[in-house]
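Ticket #4471: structure export looks truncated?
Reporter: QA, pipeline team
Priority: medium

Steps to reproduce: submit the single chain below to the structure queue and open the exported record.
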Amino acid sequence: MFQRRSFKICILVTLTILVIVLASFLKPIAQDPSYHNFADKRKLFDVPNFWNVITNAAFLIAGYYGIWQVVKSAAAPVIKCVYLTMFSGVFLTGIGSAWYHYNPVNDTLVFDRIPMTIVFMSFIASAIAERISMKAGVMLLLPLVMLGTASVLWWHYTEVHHAGDLRWYGLVQFYPVILVPLIYILFPSEYTRKQGAFLLAVIAWYAVAKLFEYYDRGVYEQVPILSGHSFKHLFSTVACYYLVGMYERTYGKRLRGELEVSTR
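Actual output as written to the record:
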C-alpha cells in the first residue's frame, strides 16, 4: 500500500516537473497591448467601465459567504486555514479586479491577478491536504501562495523592462485545473463522488468564464446589456460558489451530523 501511494505521489511530482520544464523552454509571452481595450466602456454614476467594475461585487459576496461557511464549520483548524486563505483570495479578487477595471493598465492589473493566484494555489493546497497529507497541504500553502504571487510580480517586472513574460502566471492559472482533478482520481476518498461533482462544476463554469472573456466584444455586440468580460466575472463567481458548496458538503453537513451523533 505504501509503495502504491508513493508511486502515485511520484506521478504528480514528475508531471509537475515536466510541466515546469516545458514552460521554461517556451518563449516568453508578453501581455497583449489590446488586453485593456474592453468592449464595454460605458460610464455610469461617474464610474468608468461601470459594468466591468460593478460585476466584481459578486466576488465580494462569494468570498464573504465562503469565509462565513468556514468560520461556522466544525472542520479541523488546519483545513480551515487553507479554505480561509482560498475564500479570502476570492474576496480580494473582487476588490483588486474592481480597482483594475476602474483604471485598466498593467500597474492595476497586478492587484487583480495576485488575489486570483491565492485562490488557484489554495485550491491545490486543499486537494493535497484532503487527499494526500493534511500536514503536507498546510505546509505547502504559504510556499504555493508565494509562488503564485511571484508569478504576477515577475510578469509585471518583465513588462516594465519591455520583455513581458506571462508563462509562469499562465502556469499558475491553468495547471491547477489539471493537477487537482488528477489528485482526486489518484487519491479517491469516501466523499469522492460528492466532491467530484462539485469539482466538475467548478472547472466547467471557469471554462465558460474564460470562453466569454475571450469573446468579450462578440458577446457585447450580440447582447449589449453586458460584455463578455462582465459575464466572465459572473460565471467565475458561480465557480467560486461551487467551491463553497464543496466545502459546506464536506465539512458542514457531514461534521454537523457527526456532532449530533456524538451528543446523543
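Status: closed, not a bug. The export was complete when the record was re-opened. Leaving a note from the reviewer for reference: The mean pLDDT is 91.
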